[in-house]
Amino acid sequence: MSGRHAPEWRRADRANRAAAPAGACGTPGDVLAALIDSVEGGELHVRPLRALLDSGRFARFAEIGLALRRAFRDPARRDYFIARLKPHLRYVIGALPASIQRHGMLPPEPAQPQPDALQLEQVSEAELRQWLVDDGSLIYGEFQRYELENYFDAIAPYVTPGGEMIDLGSGLGKVVMSAALALPFARCTGVELLGYRHAMAAERRARLLARAGELLAGLQPGLQPGLQPGLQPGLQPDAPLALPCGHAATLRHLLELDARIALREQNMFEADVSRASLVFIYSTCFAPLMDALAAKLARELPQGCLVSCTTFPLTHPAFRLLHHFPSNSVAWTSVFLYQRTGPADGPPPPPACLYAPDPDEWEARVRTECAAQDAASA
Ligand SMILES: C[S@@+](CC[C@H](N)C(=O)[O-])C[C@H]1O[C@@H](n2cnc3c(N)ncnc32)[C@H](O)[C@@H]1O
After folding, report:
1. Distance CA 95, CA 79 (A)
2. What is the Cα–Cα distance from 243 to 61, expressed in whole angstroms?
3. Per-residue pLDDT tens for 46-84?
4. Bridge partners of residue 239, in order along the sequence
5. What is the average pLDDT across 299-326?
6. For residue range 173-204, what is the model confidence (pLDDT) as tens digits?
């Protein structure tokens, strides 16, 4: 399809529409709008640190993180902290790794010093590098609703009804659930590594389905998602339902919501993407993973599949760029839309260095943040 893009994107200053008030649904279209508005607020979720850190792989993540944070907080070890991070700046998002900051995912320091606590000196370069990759990929963020609406408008001309949308790194499932509502996919699947985020997404999904049931039943007693009640004319499953980006659907779009949304707790590198028609990746913190992700998608996606990612491009020749939406158009960061068209097994492209901060600038920023931290704790 040719590009049919909104000439003016919704902007932060005109941000999100007011959510539809509860109980104000007179038509299936009202129900759809109210459900879309209800998938909100995941970025504010409280991180259940204990559960995360007690889970196998992340226990070591916590140990190394605490060693790094102790070195950062100790003015006498600041130079050593900087010297250890400097060779790995490609993997540091921003000035300081997210987890060691105040809002980060590490627990508070124990009240009593632990004599056997891991020291940064005991952490190898390879371990530190992997820790930084994990730290970046575990950062959480969601598009705001107006950004998602822009994004859906941007991709809608390329979406054909049916097919499977997959969000790799789906977090609390906002994109998966919103896409299942706004676009005519047969199925929308989220793949999330962290168990607690997957569990929160599953709760969000259950709340969405319960709300859909209530609102549809409010339109017509006896109408429940997944059932085939004796419907009145006008509310038959085949009754037309206009989706917000211009696609035509029927009421089945809402009645079958349960079957159309799937969530998996899984490493995205192990996910089955062989039947995908759109892969979404909020890849802003995935710079070190982009080459490996592109190689997986080039190998496993069907021809014609759409792939969108944020901030960092896919440099593999299997992907043809359809659109680059610069930052502050569709969303705060740039959004790339590709189509899988090239050879699956061509020679791999040279590794792309997508993110290479200047070491001197980085050190100056870190020292400024350290001074602020010292002043705060004086
Ligand atoms: C920036 S959040 C985006 C959440 C969601 N896609 C959205 O846009 O609302 C990235 C998510 O990817 C998850 N993640 C990181 N590495 C992953 C991996 N290897 N497999 C699956 N999920 C991963 C993180 O835990 C995090 O929840």
Report:
1. 15
2. 43
3. 667 666 666 666 788 889 999 999 999 999 999 999 999
4. none
5. 94
6. 999 999 999 999 999 999 999 888 999 999 99
CATH class given for the domain over 12-39+143-340: alpha beta
CATH 3.40.50.150 domain position(s) in the chain: 12-39+143-340
Q: What is the largest CA-CA distance in the chain?
A: 76
Confidence of residue 27 (pLDDT cuts 50, 70, 90): confident
β-strand 319-325 against 335-340: which pairing, if any?
antiparallel
The β-bridge relationship of strands 276-281 and 248-250 is unpaired
Yes or no: say if 17 and 150 are a contact pair by the CB < 8 Å rule: no
Ligand 1 centroid, distance to 269 Cα (angstroms):
12
∠ CA 266-270-271, rounded to 5°: 70
Those residues with Cβ within 8 angstroms of residue 240's Cβ, 6 or more apart along the chain or in another chain: 248, 249, 250
Separation of CA 163 and ligand 1 centre (Å): 22
**93's tokens:** 């998002």
Q: What sign results for the dihedral spanned by CA atoms 166, 167, 172, 178?
A: negative
**Residue among 47, 155, 175, 282 to mutate when testing ligand 1 (max atoms within 8 A of CB):** 282
Cβ–ligand 1 contact at 311 (below 6 Å): no
Q: Is the CB of 205 under 6 A from ligand 1?
A: no
Q: Which of 47, 99, 131, 138 to mutate to test the pocket of ligand 1 (most atoms within 8 A of CB)?
A: 138
CA 329 from centre of chain: 18
Of 209, 242, 240, nearest to 226 by C-alpha is 209
End-to-end CA distance of the chain: 61
* pLDDT tens-digit series, residues 224-262: 555 444 444 446 788 899 999 999 999 999 999 999 999
Decide: 273 and 303 in contact? Cβ < 8 Å.
no
DSSP 66-82: HHHHHHHH-GGGHHHHH
